[in-house]
């Protein structure tokens, strides 16, 4: 999509977001997102804010998560990938559609294996993650931004600081590698 066709660059869209932010008395607005599970709002948020890109005002559409959630997601993806190697007929949840024919026995067996693999990976601490930020210039609405931050929870103050640091080029990401334990929530 070209910049000219992207509504996240339009002055009227930017003005509307500024108005909504002013109403909220924040530098961002929360976006209701069905892909973010209910009750998960302190571990992952979908927000929009105004920033600069190539010396032009633009709307950033951002998904921000805690580093611990990023770790859990990475851990699950790796365990599922290993399980699928042993059960090639298994269809991951994100690949299922209305035509999917459930195989409960296979699904149950793979899910048990995934849990076992997760335990093994956690014990070996072979997966480690660090803070990151990714920018998607070809996003359908403004600029896409994805980030994982090493914070306890994504409170509004944390999000405000992230946006302020990002917009003033003062954002520094922690390059340290971390692993977490699901049973006691302690990092390495």
The averaged pLDDT comes out at: 89
The H-and-E topology, N to C, reads as HEEEHHEEH
What structural class do helix, strand and pairing data support?
A: alpha+beta
The strands making up the biggest β-sheet line up spatially as 1-2-3-5-4
Strand content: 15-25%
What does this protein look like?
The protein is an alpha+beta fold. Helix content is 36%, strand content 19%. It has two domains: 3-66 and 128-167, no CATH class; 69-124, no CATH class. The chain is built from four helices and five strands, in the order αβββααββα. It has a five-stranded mixed sheet.
Question: Could you name the key traits of this structure?
Answer:
188 residues, alpha+beta, 2 domains, five-stranded mixed beta sheet, 4 helices, disordered C terminus
Short description:
With 188 residues, the protein is of the alpha+beta class.
Helices and strands in order, then pairings?
Elements: H1 11-24, E1 28-30, E2 44-53, E3 56-66, H2 67-86, H3 104-124, E4 132-136, E5 143-149, H4 156-167
């Amino acid at each position: 999509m070209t910049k000219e066709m992207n509504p996240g660059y339009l002055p009227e869209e930017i003005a509307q977001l500024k108005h909504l932010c002013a109403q909220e008395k924040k530098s961002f607005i929360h976006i209701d997102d069905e892909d973010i599970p209910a009750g998960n709002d302190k571990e992952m948020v979908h927000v929009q804010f105004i920033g600069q890109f190539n010396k032009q005002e633009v709307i950033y559409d951002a998904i921000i998560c805690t580093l611990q959630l990023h770790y859990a997601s990475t851990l699950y993806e790796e365990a599922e990938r290993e399980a699928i190697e042993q059960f090639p007929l298994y269809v991951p949840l994100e690949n299922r559609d209305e035509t999917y024919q459930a195989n409960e026995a296979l699904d149950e067996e793979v899910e048990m294996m995934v849990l076992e693999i997760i335990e093994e990976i956690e014990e070996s601490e072979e997966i480690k993650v660090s803070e990151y930020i990714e920018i998607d210039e070809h996003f359908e609405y403004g600029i896409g931004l994805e980030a994982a931050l090493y914070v306890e929870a994504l409170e509004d103050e944390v999000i405000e600081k992230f946006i302020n640091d990002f917009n003033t080029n003062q954002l520094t990401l922690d390059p340290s590698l971390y692993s977490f334990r699901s049973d006691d929530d302690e990092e390495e």
